[in-house]
Amino acid sequence: MAQAIRDKARALGFDIVRFTDAEATPEAAARLLRFLALNRHGAMDWMERRSEQRADPKMLWPCARSIIMLAMNYGPEKDPLEALKKSDNGVISVYAQNKDYHDVIKKKLKALARWLIAETECELKVFVDTAPVMEKPLAQKAGAGWQGKHTNLVSREFGSWLFLGSIFTTLELPADESTQDHCGACTSCLDICPTNAFPAPYQLDARRCISYLTIEHKGPIPHEFRAAMGNRIYGCDDCLAVCPWNKFAVSAKETAFHPRAALEAPLLKELALLDDAEFRSLFSRSPVKRIGRTRFIRNVAIAIGNTNNPDMSSTVMALLSDDDPVIRGACVWALSRLISEDVFKNVNSAHAAKEQCADVQAEWRMADASYASTVT
Fold first, then answer.
1. Which of the four pLDDT bands, split at 50, 70 and 90, describes residue 130?
2. How far apart, in whole angstroms, are the C-alpha atoms of residue 199 and residue 264?
3. Spatial CA neighbour of 305 closest among 221, 193, 208, 191
4. What is the pLDDT of residues 208-255, one digit of tens each?
5. In contact, 194 and 221? CB cutoff 8 Å
6. DSSP labels, 195-263
7. Which residues are catalytic, by number?
8. What pairing do the DSSP bridges indicate for beta strands 66-73 and 91-92?
9. CB 355: neighbour CB atoms within 10 A?
10. 3-state secondary structure of 57
């Protein structure tokens, strides 16, 4: 049956199929609790609410006896780091440049589940990144790869580019051997991080991570991280892309993971003009859609501020009257990095006095002060 499951899963498009038991992994549970205790999860309070279930698969589903860990390769054809050099274009994380992987993988998991029930009459549950399941430690335990120093899964065959899913089942399946850590003395993933989000190897402070800031964080981006964001407007692939194990990676076979032309290197000035309906249309069936227009345009405005291109100033200036204060605040910051002090003062006098939001008023004051701080 184990071999039959592997054959069926691979026929459905999964690149890795491994088995492990449903027992808790004490080391992973301890790391999770430490992560939460240090508040490194930021505003992701859902991690804390169901931490007991996340730490122990049996707490999530007591009937589970085995876990089938599955992975799909989403390796890009190009080096994602190259896109960071084109400052007028936005960079969307590789995984989000086409269809939402949750939908793609869940469809395949359900097909495998239906087949498995028909073959064995077992009970099961399927999960793909939307339930309190620690997929990465389970994947390491099952031998699909190991958690690198950037805390993401690394595979000797596929590098850093793997989507994970799991099936909890009442079947007793032979557990595969776990994978050993093969990071060695390498610290490339830690060294490249633009915001120093890794306090130590194998530790992440999500509050400093550009992926967290551009996706999960709902309010204004803290000032200390804005310049470091560069032209990243949804997620960040730096620590994944730099991993030396990617030399063995191959591009994704699944066409749903191939980049859509409109999302591969979109022009920032065009993205900034999207209204809500246009935003939803452009990112239909993409994971980008879930963050909504406000967070997305906020990210775009910050990226425009990092272009050092004065010609882009009119784009953010048009958004100074946007209905959302988070967008207006980001545009104030961006504008202050693109135009001269004299021009900024004229814009300030036209807009700042009308501003009712205290946070945006503070942005105007800080932006105005930033000119004074550059005078030597």
1. confident
2. 31
3. 221
4. 999 999 999 999 999 999 999 999 999 999 999 999 999 999 999 999
5. no
6. T---SBTTB--GGG-HHIIIII--SPPPHHHHHHHTTEEE---HHHHT-GGGGG----S-GGGSPPHHH
7. 129
8. unpaired
9. 19
10. helix
